[in-house]
Specification:
The complex is a heterodimer of chains A (605) and B (245). Chain A is 34% helix and 17% strand. Chain A is an alpha/beta fold. Chain A has 3 domains: 4-51 and 132-234 and 380-448, 3-Layer(bba) Sandwich (FAD/NAD(P)-binding domain), CATH 3.50.50; 237-379, Succinate dehydrogenase/fumarate reductase flavoprotein, catalytic domain (Flavocytochrome C3, Chain A, domain 1), CATH 3.90.700; 450-589, Methane Monooxygenase Hydroxylase, Chain G, domain 1, CATH 1.20.58. In chain A, the strands form 4 sheets. In chain A, strands 1, 2, 3, 7, 8, 9, 10 and 17 form an 8-stranded mixed beta sheet that branches. A 5-stranded mixed beta sheet of chain A has the order 18-16-11-19-20, with helices on one face. Chain A has a 4-stranded antiparallel beta sheet with strand order 12-15-14-13, covered by helices on one side. In chain A, helix 2 packs across helix 3 (84-103), helix 9 packs across helix 10 (354-364) and helix 13 packs antiparallel against helix 14. Chain B has 10 helices and 7 strands. In chain B, helix 3 packs antiparallel against helix 6 and helix 6 (167-178) packs across helix 9 (216-232). The chains are: A alpha/beta (605), B alpha+beta (245). The interface between A and B is large, with 66 and 61 residues.
């Protein structure tokens, strides 16, 4: 039996992005003992990459804004598959969560009066995103990190959880290893919060780093939790496409918020060609009106570049498919043109979009104040995830909570930009609060030792007797990325998805023979091997859910079913692990809107 | 084009440069080449990385002796007719291969007095802040904690005075707090004694390697040094202290 160290906590948080840190801070504030486990160093999680801003109806820039409008925008953006109560809580509490960050040291850009400035973003009716240039995520994660280190929270950096431990039906802790030495660790805990982010590494073209292998989704699934809405993967419309090595790196929506326009190789602003019915009333009639909107004209409607991400991504794919894309497989995103309208355009761009300027100059050798960028869709975010209670964020497993990207329910079929940073603050806080409350009502209980022993044995398998016949973990991950990109990507078809499922099954069998050289000390190959199970699980969940929804809605586009289906529009897809170990799929009705919620949506058409 | 890389492989007990050749295509950065070598030839090669876009500060290393983010170092900017040498940051203890033990930075940060805001300006608990004040301190707040500045600082790299000096990164952090428009705490006493700001002899090596182009020495460290001097060495104050006992 391998040795392991025990680190017991009242509340264990897995993941140290915005949601995990916010949850840990809240749980610690109640006096609970709190531990955080994170795969990278503190402050490196993907929250750091968020650029545009955090959505909160502060109404500092346009006093017509308020939580009711934010709620209606979120529901419309999610194509009415969001859990209404989550969307309501989110819209109501986001302003307080943003103001609280300021009390912890965050500094946002300001209005003339010295209040927090807010910018326009896709799908938000009024300027709503509090921001700091285009590096809002860094400001947020650093603020939470620097506040969190003074709250008595124990942080286990560069540690990975491979299995959740259960005592009967209840969560009892987690098993993992430290990456530095490969030592095993057990975290007995009364409550566990999963805040592990997304699944982007399942796809070839992605803005996500190595960490985003769906760990939380998969840990919860294998512990018996239900996942919902897994077919809805957000392909952000604007990722870099050239040079090849940077393909997929994000180009913030803020570029379009500041007046950037999308053009095809014929020089046409193709976004004006297709305006969805749901947004016809809110879209600019011509480029002139669109420009006025980006410059703060309150009577103007948004330019079509600021329609929701699912729609913009599909329009870009259409242009490329029909031969009007660039030679590198993208379209043009032009911010340099604003020099026709603004006297100090070059300085303005550098001030409002500093990291974009830097990123293109350093990685592509392009000056975005002078020439257009080339962009195309990139896997960015998963709306689907662990099913949670709207108030408490507890999953369908007792004592297991989830917050942030790995939890589901707020975004429905499509997430609005800016709503993820507010999501992780609002529901991170709630998860921390209710997990601590849950833990306070429970006595310390033991965890089944045999589960830890089994997890340890499984973790060691890839290192046992390395031979050249064993499967290379990097190759397996790469092959899976091709399967998902080609078979379950931005445009989906039944036969292709069925083939993808067969290939996932074959990959799973190959993964049983994964083998890595070397020992347990900071062995990236071993780490990659251990993440494979999670990636395969979420890939299967995405494919099965997508196959189960024969319609096009939000982020899911089915070439074989290009229209919406009214009946499917009332259902959430649910997957869970059956008694036989096979993945099961069913459809549950979306919770009904309350009379008040209906009224708000009608008022804000 | 096939390029030869010499990558340091080893751990705390020692190591050596090992040769790996891999093909380099247009637009590749050093981190891409390292990943390719890892996937094809050296599955257990240890390297840290995350965002691959210069925003997280994870992939710091020494490329041909220069402290760099590997994700922002383009192969086309290097002389590929020669071998490219990649080593871990030398100011920190090696863990394995390109990964070093940077925990000290996190521990030292904890000791710095935390953000302490003045009372809110408005009834709803908010403050009014001028954009100019935001801009000034944002230069420091954009630090991505790659620790390359710590890596090149002589006080840490050559003299190993980690216990007496917090290094440029944490001086930038202190400056961000000291110049924060809402902060009220006074860190000058700590800076002078515990944090060892006097040990910095303003050679500006840190500024030169900062991938975020933060003017570390001129904008952060020197103003902090001035604050310390004003506070502790001001002749008028000294006189005042003599007379007031």
């Amino acid at each position: 039996m391998p040795n392991y160290r025990e680190h017991p906590y009242d509340v264990l948080v897995i993941g140290a992005g915005g949601a995990g840190l916010r949850a840990a801070i809240e749980a610690a504030s109640t006096g609970a003992s709190v531990g955080i486990v994170c795969k990278s160093l503190l402050g490196k999680a993907h929250t750091v990459m968020a650029e545009g801003g955090v959505a909160a109806a502060l109404a500092n820039v346009d006093e017509r804004d308020g939580w009711r409008v934010h709620f209606a925008d979120t529901m419309r953006g999610g194509q009415y598959l969001s859990q209404p109560r989550m969307a309501e809580i989110h819209a109501q509490e986001a302003p307080d969560r943003v103001r609280e960050l300021e009390a912890w040291g965050a500094l946002f850009d300001r209005t003339q009066e010295g209040r927090i400035l807010q910018r326009n973003f896709g799908g938000h009716k009024y300027p709503r995103l509090a921001h700091v240039g285009d590096r809002t995520g860094l400001e947020m994660i650093r603020t939470l990190q620097d506040h969190g280190i003074h709250q008595g929270i124990e942080v286990h950096m560069e540690c990975t959880v491979t299995t959740l431990l259960k005592d009967g039906e209840r969560i009892a802790g987690a098993f993992g290893y430290d990456r530095e030495r490969g030592r095993f660790m057990v975290f007995p805990a009364k409550a566990v919060i999963v805040a592990t982010g997304g699944v982007g590494r399942a796809f070839r073209i992605t803005s996500n780093s190595w960490e985003y292998t769906g760990d939380g989704h998969s840990l919860a699934y294998h512990a018996g939790a239900e996942l919902i809405d897994m077919e809805f993967v957000q392909f952000h419309p604007t990722g870099m496409v050239w040079p090849p090595s940077v393909k997929g790196i994000l180009v913030t929506e803020g570029v379009r918020g500041e007046g950037g326009v999308l053009k095809n190789t014929e020089g046409r602003r193709f976004m004006f060609d297709d305006i969805p019915e749901l947004y016809r009333n809110q879209t600019a009639a011509d480029p002139e009106e669109g420009w006025r909107y980006t410059q703060g004209d309150r009577d103007a409607n948004r330019p079509p570049e600021l329609l929701t991400r699912d729609h913009v991504a599909r329009c870009i794919v259409r242009e490329i498919k029909e031969g009007r894309g660039t030679e590198h497989g993208g379209v043009f995103l032009d911010i340099a043109w604003i020099k026709e309208r603004l006297p100090n355009a070059e300085e303005h761009i550098k001030r409002k979009l500093p990291s974009m300027y830097h990123q293109f100059r350093e990685l592509a050798g392009i000056d975005i104040t002078k020439v257009p960028m080339e962009v195309g869709p990139t896997t960015h975010y998963i709306m689907g995830g662990i099913r949670v209670d709207a108030e408490t964020q507890m999953s369908t497993v007792e004592g297991l909570f989830a917050a942030g990207e790995c939890a589901a329910g707020l975004h429905g079929a499509n997430r609005l930009g800016g709503n993820s940073l507010s999501d992780l603050l609002v529901f991170g806080k709630r998860a921390g609060e209710y997990a601590a409350r849950f833990a306070a009502e429970r006595a310390t209980e033991s965890y089944p030792k045999e589960q830890a022993e089994a997890a340890a044995a499984a973790a060691l398998e890839p290192l046992d007797g390395h031979t050249s016949q064993g499967q290379n973990p990097y190759k397996l991950q790469s092959d899976l990325q091709d399967v998902m990109q080609d078979g379950v990507g931005i445009v989906r078809k039944e036969d292709e998805m069925k083939e993808a499922l067969r290939r996932i099954d074959r990959l799973r069998r190959r993964a049983a023979n994964v083998s890595v050289p070397g020992n347990r000390e900071y062995n990236n190959g071993w780490h990659t091997a251990l993440d494979l199970e999670h990636l395969l699980t979420v890939s299967e969940a995405i494919a099965r859910s997508a196959l189960g929804r024969p319609e096009s809605r939000g982020a899911q586009f089915r070439e074989d079913y290009p229209e919406k289906d009214a009946e499917l529009g009332k259902l959430n897809t649910v997957v869970w692990r059956g008694a036989d170990g096979e993945m099961q799929v069913r459809f549950d009705p979306v919770p009904e809107l309350s009379e008040e919620q209906k009224k708000i949506i009608e008022e804000n058409q | 084009m096939v390029v030869n890389f010499r990558i340091w492989r080893g751990d705390a007990s020692g190591g050596q440069l090992r040769d790996y050749s891999t093909s380099v295509t247009e637009g590749m950065v050093v981190l891409d080449a390292v990943h390719q070598i890892q996937a094809e030839r050296a599955n257990d090669l240890a390297v840290r990385w995350n965002c691959k876009a210069g925003k997280c500060g994870s992939c710091s290393a020494e490329v041909n002796g220069q402290p760099k983010l590997m994700c922002m170092t383009r192969m086309s900017d290097l002389d590929t007719s020669q071998s490219i040498t990649i080593e871990p940051m030398r100011a920190f203890p090696p863990i394995r291969d390109l990964v070093t033990d940077v925990k000290w930075n996190f521990e030292a940060k904890k000791r710095i007095q935390k953000f302490t805001p003045r009372a809110p300006d408005n009834d709803d608990g908010t403050w009014n802040v001028d954009q100019g004040d935001v801009d000034r301190v944002q230069e420091f707040r954009k630090c991505i904690e790659c620790f390359l500045c710590q890596d090149v600082c002589h006080v840490l790299r050559e003299h190993h005075l980690h216990q007496r000096f917090i290094g440029p990164r944490l001086l930038v952090y202190s400056a961000a707090l000291e110049m924060h428009p809402l902060d009220t705490a006074d860190r000058t006493g700590d800076l002078r004694s515990r944090d060892g700001i006097g040990l910095c002899n303003i050679t500006k090596c840190c500024t030169k390697v900062c991938p975020e182009n933060i003017t570390i020495t001129d904008n952060a460290i020197i103003p902090l040094k001035e604050r310390v001097v004003d506070r502790f060495y001001d002749p008028l104050r000294k006189l005042f202290r003599v007379f007031s006992g």
